[in-house]
Structure formats: structure tokens, C-alpha cells
Design goal:
single chain, 445 residues, alpha/beta
Length: 445
């Protein structure tokens, strides 16, 4: 009876959930032609080591020879909710799947990517529990654990040029082990002999790939390790894989856990929403109230146009995806802020604003973040009005309906309206009639 009830609840959950979010695909092309490979992660949303690694790979690596197609997050909706799979385990849906499954379309799209004629090998990344060992040692080190190993489904498949799965995975493991932080982190080869003895793995992405003539390899980092170390081992695995298949690359940072932690927590990361608003990712207040969001995105914030240096950012609604619910600003599975949207029509006719910052006049692009020492002055723009959120006007201009041609001083800003926890960052919003025309942020020193 318990199982029947659970099935019923899960299907009710589907009814109240939005459709799964499409994954995004990025191509990294080398100056020289060569082999073409596919790197994927984020098929399970509670494995941040994997998708943080592909995120950094896209940002800080350059391909010199060959090409790499990267899908950093196969299941964005599961990532946002830190769930193995809010519609079930996506990595167990590659054998047979009902068309009624919410992720049927997602699976078809993943299969299409794997089966593209130009793709010659697939590298699939996960975070697994404990540490894999061929023989049982204890609860943490044993054959049923998946952490810190590289996986193949069998020794070889009859394709060229990378059908020698065992030889390639040996190279991946050997390279990963050149960078061990501790001896017990040592990577091992895990051949699951899927066709013979692993019915669960027969439903997996890598097994689908090899049974369709695509060499495929999986790489696991232990969930026992802190995030920076998981990402470190994943990047070593990617580098070992690329070397084994002859794809040449460059990396522009020192590969250490310390450096990785600083890149993941880069305080300069920003998010641009619908080309009209740019906000920093870190140190935001929560909740952020009455924050302009395009009316067209009401009930569908996942598909709002976003720009960032990061590839794992997104907006996701709270709770049962109601149109008036709070919105989470997500960085992977981390919630950076909760936003109470103010849904408005967006008018994009305003591109720049004339502003005087600490006595120096300049033209500033909408969506900018300006550093201000003491004051700023917005010069009038015909047809628009300005609203400085948190500005307390002096008595002589208290009745002025907007903040063009007004000197705004730091001492006149109410800290409770600041966008950040340090009370330095304030919103300056622009409107044309009732339509929102954009925002700049001023950051007081």
C-alpha cells in the first residue's frame, strides 16, 4: 500500500510541476581540426562536483586542436532543487521509457547529442558515494561505492578510433592519479561488465552510447570530499580523457583546490536579466522585494533570457511553481537570493543614461554597476523617469515625482533598501510610462 501511495504522490507532483527545463549545449572549437568529443554532467542534480567542473572548464579552458561539445547540466531543474531527479533518476531512462514520462523529450534530446555523426567519444561525470575498491575494506571503501573511479561498461567496442575502452580509461585513471591530494583518494578502474551482470547500468547513458557505437566513459568524484576537491579530480579526469583522445587544450589557471575554490566563489560574478538588469551574485540580501521581472516571464521564469560568465546560473520558482511565488536565484544548487518579483512590461528603448558620478560626467550603459564615493546626479532624459530605490529626498524637492536632475548623496540612502547585505549597493530604475526601461546599480564605497 505504501508503494502505491508513493507512486500516486509522485504523479500528483508531475501534475503541479512545470515541464523539465531544456539543457544548453556549448561548442569549443580548436584552431586546428581533430577529434570531436562530448563532455556531459549534471544528469543528477545533487552532484555539484561534476557540473561545477564543466562550468569552470567552459570558462577557463581553450581548445587548441579538435573540438569539445559540452553540456554542463543535463537536468537543470534537478540541479536547482539539489535533487537526484525530481522526475526520477534521469540516468536510468535510456533503455525503455514511456512517452508519458515528463522527461521523455529530454532523453530523446540527449540521445540525439550522443548519436551525432561527428561525436567520436563521450565523457560523463558524476559524484558518487564513498570510494570504489574492488575488494571490501569497510563501509566507505568497497565494490558498492562509486566515488573516485573511472567507469567503463566493458573492455572494448568494435569501432574506430576509440573502441579500446580499457586502454583509454587506464590513461584517464593514470593521469588523475598524478595529482592525488591524499593516498586514499587513489582512482581505480571500475568495469561494470554491464551487459553481463548489471541490469541497472543497462538503463544508463554510457551503456546506451556504447550499444550505439559511441565509446563512452564515466568519471566519479567522491561525495566524501569537499566541493573544491571533487572539482579538482573531475578536471584532472577531463584532462586525462582529452589527452587520451588527442584533443589539445590550454588551461589558464593553476589546477589546485585552493584556486578552484576562488574561481567557484568569484565575487565578481554577475547575472544579467533580459539585457536590462545586472546584479552581482554574492552578498545579496534575501528576500529582494519588488524586483522588476518581465511580465512575459510570469509563471515561466526558467526561460527568461540570462547572461553570465557562469554556465550554471538560473532563476527558479519556489514551491508549486505558482505565477506569484518567490523566485530563487540559483548558482548550481546554491540559493543566492530569494526574489519577490514585480512583473512589468519591459521597454528596451533606453540604452544609455547621462550621469555625473562624484562630479565627473559620463554616459553609462543600462545594466551597468557604478562605483560611487559620495554622490551622483542623473541628467534628465526626455520621456523617461528615474526612481532611486531607498533615496530620501530633502524637503525642498520632496514632492518631485522622480529623481532626474537631483543630487543623490550617500548619506541620504536608507540602508534597508540596499540590494546587498553590506548596504552599499542600490537600484536606480528607469521607466517610460508604466513600462520598465532598465536599471543601473550604484555601489557606494
Amino acid at each position: 500500500m505504501g508503494r502505491v501511495f508513493l507512486f500516486f504522490v509522485c504523479n500528483l507532483h508531475f501534475l503541479f510541476c512545470i515541464a523539465p527545463i531544456d539543457f544548453k549545449v556549448y561548442d569549443m572549437q580548436g584552431a586546428q581540426s581533430g577529434h570531436n568529443v562530448l563532455i556531459m554532467s549534471g544528469i543528477q542534480g545533487d552532484e555539484p562536483g561534476a557540473y561545477n567542473a564543466t562550468n569552470l572548464f567552459l570558462q577557463y579552458y581553450t581548445i587548441k586542436k579538435g573540438s569539445v561539445r559540452v553540456i554542463p547540466v543535463l537536468s537543470p531543474h534537478s540541479m536547482y532543487y539539489n535533487s537526484r531527479g525530481i522526475y526520477g533518476d534521469l540516468n536510468r531512462k535510456f533503455a525503455t521509457l514511456s512517452k508519458r514520462d515528463p522527461e521523455f523529450g529530454v532523453i530523446q534530446k540527449i540521445k540525439e547529442q550522443i548519436l551525432k555523426a561527428e561525436i567520436q567519444a563521450v565523457f560523463h561525470m558524476h559524484d558518487g558515494s564513498g570510494f570504489y575498491r574492488e575488494q571490501y575494506i569497510n563501509e566507505t571503501f568497497n565494490p558498492k561505492r562509486w566515488g573516485n573511479c573511472s567507469i567503463i561498461d566493458q573492455d572494448s567496442i568494435n569501432v574506430e578510433p576509440f573502441g579500446n575502452l580499457k586502454e583509454i580509461v587506464e590513461q584517464i585513471v593514470a593521469h588523475t592519479n598524478t595529482g592525488l591530494l591524499k593516498s586514499f583518494h587513489k582512482y581505480h578502474i571500475h568495469n561494470t561488465h554491464t551487459a553481463i551482470k548489471d541490469k541497472q547500468m543497462q538503463k544508463s547513458l554510457t551503456y546506451f552510447a556504447i550499444t550505439n557505437g559511441k565509446p563512452a566513459f564515466a568519471h566519479e568524484a567522491s561525495k566524501t570530499l569537499p566541493l573544491r576537491e571533487r572539482v579538482y579530480y573531475h578536471l584532472l579526469g577531463i584532462e586525462g580523457f582529452l589527452q587520451a583522445v588527442g584533443v589539445e587544450f590550454e588551461r589558464n589557471f593553476d589546477l589546485t583546490p585552493k584556486t578552484i575554490a576562488s574561481l567557484i566563489n568569484d565575487k565578481n560574478l554577475t547575472l544579467t536579466i533580459d539585457s536590462s538588469i545586472t546584479i552581482p551574485l554574492f552578498h545579496l540580501k534575501s528576500p529582494i522585494n519588488f524586483f522588476p521581472i518581465p511580465l512575459s516571464a510570469k509563471g515561466d521564469v526558467q526561460n527568461l533570457a540570462l547572461e553570465s560568465k557562469s554556465y550554471i546560473l538560473g532563476l527558479s520558482p519556489e514551491g508549486d511553481f505558482k505565477a506569484d511565488s518567490m523566485v530563487f536565484l540559483k548558482y548550481g544548487n546554491r540559493t543566492m537570493a530569494r526574489i519577490k518579483p514585480l512583473y512589468l512590461e519591459f521597454d528596451k528603448s533606453l540604452e544609455h543614461i547621462d550621469i555625473q558620478v562624484d562630479g565627473k560626467r559620463q554616459e553609462v550603459k543600462i545594466g551597468s554597476i557604478l562605483k560611487v564615493k559620495d554622490n551622483f546626479y542623473l541628467h534628465n532624459k526626455d520621456g523617461y523617469r528615474a526612481n532611486v530605490i531607498g533615496f530620501i529626498k530633502p524637503n525642498d524637492i520632496a514632492k518631485k515625482p522622480q529623481e532626474f536632475d537631483v543630487l543623490v548623496q550617500k548619506k541620504a540612502m536608507l540602508k534597508k533598501f540596499a540590494l546587498d547585505i553590506n548596504a552599499k549597493l542600490y537600484r536606480v530604475e528607469f521607466y517610460k510610462g508604466n513600462a520598465f526601461s532598465g536599471m543601473i546599480l550604484v555601489e557606494f564605497e
